[in-house]
Amino acid sequence: MNRPPWKERRRRIDLALIFCAGLIVWLLWRNTGSAVDQAAITTAFGVCVILLSVYTGAATIDDNNVMKHMGPAAYDDRAPGP
To answer: Transmembrane ranges (predicted)?
Structure first.
């Protein structure tokens, strides 16, 4: 398979999103209502939005570059020929 490795990138994004979601849930569960908690929730949500935007944008750019340099066969699931 000639496909570029996305497994590691996906794992890092998933871990970052899980961390942000866990932080948001924990802060909401604590429910102190302080300005610091509200700022942390807003920041964590913003980080999630930025992560998803950059991840999808980078994937699109990477796919375009792969198609340009390797051709459509880069994403074939078949094993490369002899």
So the answer is: 12-29, 41-61
